[in-house]
Structures are given as structure tokens and as C-alpha cells.
Amino acid sequence: MPIYEYKAFDQKGKSRKGIIEAENESGARSKLRAAGMYPETLRENFSHASKKEKKTLAASFSLERIKSAEIHLFTRQLATLLGAGIPLVSALSSLLEQTANPALKKALAQIKDGVNEGNTLTSSLARHPKLFSTIYINMVRAGEASGSLDIVLEKLADFGEKQQMLQGRLKAALVYPVFMAVIGSAILFILITYIVPNITKVFADMERTLPLPTRLLIALSNFLRGYWWLVILGLVGLLFAFRAFIRSGKGRRRWDLLKLKAPIVGSVTQKVVLARFASTMASLLGSSVPLVTSMQIVQSIVNNELIAEVIDEAIERIRKGKSMASSLGSSPWFPPIFVQMIGVGEQSGNLEPMLIKVADAYEREVDMAIMGMTSLIEPIMIAAMGAAVGFVVLSILLPIFEMNQMVG
Q1: Bridge partners of 8?
Q2: Phi, psi (5° rounding) for residue 4?
């Protein structure tokens, strides 16, 4: 459907700008008048453009990234407006005017038009699966069905911001080690390829056989100077091979198993998955989404084949009348304390509050595990860099010691 840019006056005489979706220009003018605005200028910006212009516009929309934080902010603002008693279409119109991101503005215009045409908010949001996840859609559907859409949207905003903070902490923990690894590798490369050859020229006239470390260092220096491009190609090839491996069925399963069993990292990965599981289940159940549906949604977002299989088996057991705690209890990836707390929540009829407590507990454990992981990675990297530099220094000093002995 064509998109029109408009400039119009509202009932108070204030100038308004925005975009609107309509079948034609006449339809766009009718929609504006129905919304209480009087169009001054109306310009189609997509449907009648040439093929080249369409590609340019499409590229501009694809390059204009919509951040998760913008979706969370939109959700919270919509919850606030609905909680204040403002009708849904009016609330969407207000948010549309305040939105600065062109791509998000276009999406909100389409959502608003969908609702204005009589569709539910759920179906209008579902037209944008890249912006609104399965969890988001199902919680909104439950909120519309129960008449508590503003409360559900508030929970969605809290949930989204919580998940974003968790991901942010993980990324922040990896920034320093990655930075150190890149800088350290660059320094070693420059040292071996440019500085070492100038020093080892002194040993070229020696009639004695050089020590093994020195010969290895010279060979490595010559190789890197002559075939550095081959090293880069090899690293890129390994990266593509690794990506192809983890995209295959067996490869993905082995990679997920390694992430769970790896020293240091495995514990953090498991705690992150458990925190996400508990937090997501609490949000879905608190929004009146059925238990089995909630489990199916969580299964699709855990991002680990082994745990997804456990959840799939648990869903089948729940359908046969088993409790969630007993269905998850046979898996080694769900610790006994995790299962026990869920069992207590089920027996007391307070599963959602108990899941919130479990999520909070595991998020605190994730923070501590990240701090522990970071504190271990730093000395390991320093020791590795020290060993590499020590090898270079030793390789250079050994022939010098031998020369001193010969002179003596």
C-alpha cells in the first residue's frame, strides 16, 4: 500500500507533519480529515517512484535501524497512555507524532492504520515480526483478551529492558578481553615482522648453529612477512567453516553442548539460560498466556538445542498431566534448587511470583559469574602475552649469550 507524506493543520490550527498509508491520494485525504486534520500538502514517497528510487528508499529504510530500546520506550509510553484512559488509536497517533526514527514512524503508521480499520492491535503488530517477537505478540493478545492491555504492555516494557540489561552486561564483560586480545596480537605481529628481523640480522654471520628458539622465531618472522595475507585468508576461511559447522544440525548441537560444559564460560551460559527461562515464563504466565503456550514460546528463545529438547519433552509430559517441576527435574541442565523452587510455586499456586524470584536470583548469580569470569580471563591473557613476549626475548638473548661465551 502506498505511503504518503503530509503536512496538515489540526482543529486548533497547529501545523502537523507525518506519514500515512492509503490506497490512493483521495483515501489519504479522507483518512486525515477523519482524524480531524486538514491536509495542506500531500506527497507520495514510495509507490510511484522509479525502480531506482524504490531501491534507494528501500535501502534507506533497511539501513535505518530500529533499536530494541526504541521498542521498549514505545511499549512503555503506549502503556502509560492507555492506563490514562486514552483510546488506542489516539495513543498511537500521539506516539507517531513524537517518533523521530523514520523506519519506526513508518511501522507505527501501518499499525495505527490497521487498528483504525478495525483490526486488533495483535494482528497489526504481527505484520512486523522483525520488530515484535513471538513473546510480544502473545502477551499483547492475552492483554487484549483479558482487557488489561496497559498492564501487559507495562510488563512487556519491564521484561524487555531487563533482558537488554542482561545482554548489555554480557557484552560489557567481553569488551575488555577482546580489546586486549586484538591490541596484543597487533603488537606481537609488528614485533615479529618488523623489529625482530632487524635484530636477527646480527646472527646471519655466525658460523655456529643458532639455538632452536631463535631458529623458530626467524622462521615465524619470515613466514609472517612473506605470507601474512595467507594467515588472514586462513582465519577468514576458518570463520566461515565454523559458521557453516554450527549451522548444521550436528554442529549446532555439539557447539551448544560445548557452551554448557566449557570451563568458566559453561557456568555463565547455563545461568543466563535459566534466568531468561524464568523471567520469560513469569512474564507470559502473568499476562494470562497458557502454560503450554508459554513453554513453547520459551523453547524458541533459549538459543540452545539441548535445553530446547528438554523443554519439548517437558511440554509433552505437562500435556499428559505432569507438573512443570517434575517434567524438568530429569534434566542435568536444570539444577535441583531451580526445580524445587518451581515445585514450591506450583504447590502453593504462586508459580509466577516464584519464577520472578528465581529469575532475580539467577540474574544476581550471572552478575557474580561474569565478574568471576572477567577476573580469570584478565590474568590468563596477561600470562599468555607475557609468555609470547618472553619467547621473543629469550630467542634473541640466547645467541648473544653464546657469542659472549665464545669471546670469553
Answers
A1: 16, 39
A2: -120, 135
| Residue type, position 94, single letter | S
Q: How far is CA 228 from the centre of its chain?
A: 33
Are 319 and 174 contacting, i.e. CB atoms less than 8 angstroms apart?
no
- Tell the CATH topology of 159-408: Receptor-associated Protein (1.20.81)
pLDDT per residue rounded down to tens, the chain (408 residues): 566 677 777 767 777 777 777 766 677 777 777 777 777 677 665 444 444 444 444 444 443 578 888 888 899 999 999 988 898 888 988 888 888 888 888 888 888 888 887 888 888 888 888 888 888 888 888 888 878 888 888 888 888 888 788 778 777 777 877 888 888 888 888 888 888 888 777 776 666 678 888 888 888 888 888 888 998 999 999 999 999 988 887 888 899 899 888 887 888 888 888 988 888 888 888 888 888 888 888 887 788 888 989 999 999 999 998 999 989 988 888 999 999 999 999 998 889 899 989 988 988 888 888 888 777 877 888 888 889 889 888 888 888 787 776 655
Rounded distance between C-alpha atoms, residue 136 and residue 287, angstroms: 11
Task: Give Cα 143 to chain centroid, integer Å.
Answer: 26
Q: What would the CATH number be for the domain defined by 1-63? A: 3.10.20
Tell if the pTM clears 0.85, that is, is over it. Answer: no
Helix axes 149-190, 265-286, angle to 10 degrees: 160
Contact 290, 142 (CB under 8 A): no
- The end-to-end CA distance of the chain, in Å, is 91
Domain locations in the chain as residue ranges: 1-63, 159-408
